[in-house]
Amino acid sequence: MIAPLVTPPSQTTLDAAITAAGVGRFQKRLLGIFGLVWAADAMQVLAIGFAAPTIAKEFGLTIPQAIQVGTVFFLGMLIGASVCGRLADRIGRRRVLIGTVLMDAAFGLLSAFAPSFTILLVLRFFTGVAVGGTLPVDYAMMAEFLPADRRGRWLVALESFWAVGTVALALASFLAATFAPDQAWRWIFGAIALPALIGFWLRLWIPESPQYLARTGKETQALGVINQIAIANGQPVIVGPLTVEPQARAPLSALFTGALLRPTVLILSVWFLVSVSYYGVFVWLPSQFGTQSRPRLRSRPGFSGSARAGATARL
């Protein structure tokens, strides 16, 4: 008796499986969660411009000295962005995202209770490390849950939450200056930590990136995550198994050699100039507005202060 032929299961590439899982409810949920923390990061980054005047007043500093809080924050961002991207490739995107958002919320909230300027500098530095680690990993993880042809529009939508955070910061600063003018900076730092705290809890529900799982030899787990996406989007389950196409990896120094040298230098230069102008304006301008006093009425020639007082009394 001849045994029947068994057809081997068909293999599906990782990119094809993500495309088959579709775009819908799952990605919208992700956009809401990532967008909330993206807005929270915008508030943390730009907060010093609104908080500097009352920081200077409470600790007896000048405005330039108070803005050092923003300087150490950006230094922390530089370190966080440099370290956390590589760390996410080693231990996973989900762990880094949860850890950085927890740091963001914790150190950001503690900043509101800083008893001295030195402690405030330390707390804002670690808040900056957390924010710097969150931004690049957020961006990469959102992209890895999307088909290649949909990433552009969805990542632009994620970027729009930065503007939402900017508006929310301005509103929080206005309320703090209205109801607690002497310690407005404490209320500002406390308020902007709340979205990150909510984002930490929501991120516990986000699975690990299927791209990371598949490329670290966990194809079965990657397929399980992709099927979660498919079910949430109302698409059929992908059978698998998954195959991962090998990718050639080049060192970072390759960006500065050969045909890549010119575009790399140009892009870095443009990004540097845009960042300097953008953050320079948003850090400097609010602090200047905060130090302006109300304009006084100018005296008209021939109409002295005593004459004005008399005219008012007669009315």
Summarize the entry for a quick read.
The chain is mostly helical and 315 residues long. The protein has helices at residues 14-21, 25-59, 63-66, 68-91, 93-111, 117-144, 151-179, 184-203, 210-215, 219-232, 261-291, 305-314; strands at 12-13, 242-243.
Descriptive keywords:
315 residues; mainly alpha; Growth Hormone, Chain: A; two-stranded parallel sheet; 72% helix; globular; disordered C terminus
Description:
The protein has 315 residues and is mainly alpha-helical. The protein folds into two domains: 18-247, Growth Hormone, Chain: A (Up-down Bundle); 250-289. It is built from twelve helices and two strands.
Based on the structure given, which CATH architecture of the largest domain is correct? Answer: Up-down Bundle
CATH superfamily heading of the largest domain: MFS general substrate transporter like domains
Mean pLDDT: 84
Question: Biggest sheet: strands, sense, closure?
Answer: 2 strands, parallel
The CATH class of the largest domain is Mainly Alpha
CATH fold node name of the largest domain: Growth Hormone, Chain: A
Number of helices: 12
Topology, number of strands: 2
How many structurally independent domains?
2
Roughly what fraction of the amino acids lie in strands? Answer: under 5%
Strand order of the largest sheet: 1-2
Unreliable spans are 1-9, 293-315
Name the overall outline: globular
Assign the structural class, choosing from mainly alpha, mainly beta, alpha/beta, alpha+beta, or little secondary structure.
mainly alpha
- Give the fraction of residues assigned to helices: over 70%
N- to C-terminal distance: 118 Å
Taken in chain order, the helices and strands follow as EHHHHHHHHHHEHH
* Cα-based radius of gyration, to the nearest Å: 26 Å
